[in-house]
Amino acid sequence: MVKTFAGARLRRLREEHGVSQIELARRLGISPSYLNQLEHDTRPLTVPVLIRITEVFGVDTAYFAPHDTPRLVAELREALPARATLPDLTELASRLPEVAEAVIDLYRRYRQTNDQLAEVVGDRELVPGRSPHDQVSDFFYRRQNYVPDLDEAAEALAVEIRIRRGEARAALTDRLADRHGVRVVRQDTDALAGELHRYQPQSRTLHLSTSLRSGQEAIRMGAQIALLEYADVIDEIIEEERIYDVQTQILLRVGLANYFAAALILPYREFLDTAEAMRYDIELLTNHFVMGWESVCHRLSTLQRPRARGVPFSFVRVDRAGNMSKRQSATGFPFSRSGGTCPLWNVYEAFSAPGRVMTQVAAMPDGQRYLWIARTVTRHHGGYGQPGKVFAIGLGCELRHAGRLVYSAGRDLQATGAATPIGPGCKTCERLTCPQRAAAPIGRRLDLDENRSTFIPYPLKTETP
């Protein structure tokens, strides 16, 4: 049985609630010295103590699971190439996650400073810093893609204005008009100069493109309600993040407004109960709630309310070139930050069969296995001859949750040899003999010889201790 050491998380949880060691020990029915040992990882958490902790603080047992370790290790490898061994990085990420986060944050700040210097001196070869999009993705990643204040407010508002599945637009139109005096106008895309929506505060008019589907219209209206009605809540969240870059603030504000909109149209408890009853069949959920595939998948990745958790999913959106335009996760799936993702991932296979649901049991280098579901979605904003957009949407969960999904039917989830070996990205992947590798791993020297060739594209020198 694997022992659980989570001292740093226990200490952080206690400090966040303003509880002393003596007081918490009394509530848990253990001695202060035992609690001190737990917080310093000299004793593992036992199941009875773990259950009492979850009852005292109202958190799920998954809070103490080391599910973030793969993500931290992948990021530490980028921050500390060739400076530490994989076992050392794994121990740092699992035993001292706060220290690992601090190291990663320092590296991010270094990259950001380098980027600013590149702007000044015109040197584009310097390491780029984090973009506003990356910072927003990091925000949702750190929170496991769940924002309780907005989620709970949206669910309460859904009850107040009587949101009904498939009929959200009418209720949202009435709310905008009655509460805010906002008029909704649908216009041809050309009249909006290619924009999908535009809000004019002066005339209190929300213009929506006729190319938007009903679910997309509802999301735009729900987001506008968030910006008008819950601006204080959103601004407080942004202030807590200490984000001072204006572009990042705007992107995060939009992201939080869209999060609220999805939570309003697909209220938490109703959506979770339906998803469980339908075994997370995305096709059935899209038909039931009259929403698009991407919107449903994104909402599924946010169901992490304490004491009412859904399957913890990772959500990703990529294009044919491998660009990842969205990545959010309620799990510790280690998305690559150094460019490129694994070509063996079924998210890319989805482009070969548009509209078809692809499933894959994937194994990461650390042995963690995931069930991934992927399908393409297509968007058009005009008529014949107008360019459209094609994305692949991926939704993945750890294999231990796969039995709750309809997509596990007929699969032998225990057959380790049947899992496809994938990695976070070629530059940080530990699969050194992978023939699909597109880049050498960070910090490793190549074993090059003009007198021989190898099947492996990037042969590496054998490291001697």
Automatic annotation (TrEMBL):
Q: Which residues form the signal peptide?
A: none
- This protein's superkingdom? Bacteria
Residue ranges crossing the lipid bilayer per the database entry? none
What are the alphabetically sorted keywords of the record?
A: DNA-binding, Transcription, Transcription regulation
Q: Which part of the chain is the HTH cro/C1-type domain?
A: 10-64
- UniProt xrefs under InterPro entries: Cro/C1-type_HTH, HTH_RamB, IrrE_HExxH, Lambda_DNA-bd_dom_sf, ScfR_C, TransReg_Diox_bact_type
Pfam families from the UniProt entry? HTH_3 (PF01381), Peptidase_M78 (PF06114), ScfRs (PF09856)
The answer to keyword DNA-binding applying to this record is yes
Family the entry assigns: Belongs to the short-chain fatty acyl-CoA assimilation regulator (ScfR) family.
Task: State the name under which the record lists this protein.
Answer: Short-chain fatty acyl-CoA regulator family protein
Q: Which organism is it from?
A: Plantactinospora sonchi
